[in-house]
Amino acid sequence: MRALLVIDVQNCIVDAGEFKEELSLMEETIKDFKAGDCPVIFMQHFDKETESPLHKDSAGSELHASLKEYADCVIEKGTPSSFFHTELADMLEKAGVDHLFITGFQTEFCCMFTAIAAFDRGYKVTFIENATGTPNTEETYDMPGLNVKDFVGTVLHWSNVIEVLDYEEYVDKYKAENVV
Asked: For the chain, is the Cβ count within 10 Å smaller at the N or the C terminus?
């Protein structure tokens, strides 16, 4: 069985950039998984530091209104990996999930760490590159010309263990009505 992870779609992250396209692709993927009766799991990151915009009591940590209505299942996390000290692995095992699809925010941290951790736990992993987003840019890393999403997608693709697709490739290969 396949499941979709929607990682860190939280106000302070989404509001830090222009993510209309990424949010739209995440929403279409969520709808597809729900139509196929496959689990959709939202991961919500919380920081312990009270001054952090991702502190549990802050508006910045809340799920963004654009996708919040789809969040029937939400798991809290405190590190980039969605597996570290969470109940995610147990939930996936109980549901019989063997294939995880990754979407969400913080492409180079939470999405990538989760994809690698999922592979390490024996899951087939599909990373939908253009259905991830990050407010970080080439200026953040002082690396002129860096496209963070493309770089992460390339690194994961070159690993030969994590499938990296764009949304259109996902539709061609996996869309619910195409999967038997």
From this structure: C
146 in any annotated domain: yes
138 is written with which tokens? 């080439």
Enclosing domain of residue 103: 2-6+18-37+81-178
This prediction has a pTM of: 0.93
Taking alpha carbons only, the member of 128, 127, 131 closest to residue 161 is 127
Ranges assigned E (strand) in the chain: 2-7, 40-45, 74-77, 99-105, 124-133, 163-165
Tokens describing residue 110? 């939470």
Q: Is residue 13 a part of any domain in this protein?
A: no
Q: What is the SS3 assignment for 170?
A: helix
Report the domain count for the chain.
1
